[in-house]
Amino acid sequence: MSEAKLSRRERKANAWQGKLCANCDAPLQGPFCHVCGQPEKTPIRDVVSLGTDAFDYLFDVDARLWRTLRDLFFRPGRLTQGYLAGKRMSFVRPLRIYLVTSAILFVVISSMADIGMNVAENGEVQFGPVKARVGDTELNPPSAAPDDSTEPAPVQPAEPVPSQETGPEEAPSPPEAAGSDGSKKPAERKPIKFTFNDQPWHPTDNPVSIAALPDAMNVRINLFIGLLQHNLELAREDPKRLGATFLRVLPQSLFVLLPLFALLLKGVLIFKRRLYMEHLMVAIHSHTFIYMAILAIIGLNMFAEKVGPTYEWIPYWMLGLTCAWIPLNLFLTQKRVYRQTWLGALFAFSIVGIAYMFLVTFTMLGALVMSLANL
What we know:
By secondary structure, this protein is mainly α. It contains 9 helices and 6 strands. The protein has helices at 8-13, 47-74, 78-84, 94-112, 215-237, 239-268, 276-307, 313-338, 342-373; strands at residues 115-119, 125-129, 177-178, 184-185, 195-196, 199-200. The strands form 3 sheets. The chain has a two-stranded antiparallel ribbon. Strands 3-4 form a two-stranded antiparallel ribbon. The longest helix is centred in the last third of the chain and has 32 residues, at 276-307. The radius of gyration is 32 Å and the shape is extended. The model is unreliable at 130-150 and 161-175 (pLDDT under 50).
């Protein structure tokens, strides 16, 4: 083929032909020297040439990224199967796409979530959206500022009407006790206490003691319990602080799920005689797909709030399909990669799914404990 018929990219790829290595003077047989390994291209070039190379690199990454995301979401198991078969350069590396997707997901969740801890007056602990407490300077900021130009009309206090049957009404007890100086004091709240042996935990009077562990380990356990109890009180005063810490710890905790999930696949599918790294690739691609699906669900939910009631059914219909697609995609991925029958795949998927739910539950609890410890 004549050089005039070659594209610009093909001419750049064949630029090494007929040249010698600038380092060892060996005749080049490709873009890299087969003797010393030095590339034919040098960074000492004009800005236009460097700019075109950067554009080509970004374009290639975008194409690989699109193929990776498309196969992950719409072609269950094809990406993992191709990667294990040796087709790796046409797609983004599994760990890279996982880290990018998880980072985007937790940035979105952190910007939207208002997670914290609410502690009732009786000491009951609840986790969820932060609720404003009585005594805060601002419970719910008004949606619109009041107009200062118009003075509100004074409200006349209503006269209490005595009941003919029961007599005059008694004044309701105030929710807050008054101090000696006339200032209001918040109602007394019960302290958060852990229980051990049906008695309140105490580091010296009623400590946790495990006979199978040495004394030094028991001391560390009681110090850790005291730290958690103290930080729970801090979280009661500032619930958003715990929510922010939990969202910081959660990505690292879920990252630990990857090797554990691969180990779970190895144990359930032991007769497939697959290497652990093959199971790890399945785990990485499966979790990346789950994060992509969660992002899609968040986006569809936001879209449903914007379109209004007329076309609201469209995003909600797509949202339902996305939720149903998550377990179906994971099931088809497992069946394709491990080449199982329908009955065998369904049995293995059920065992893996139940065990995985336990793993996720313990991981979330561990992330919560670590959040309290790092508060």
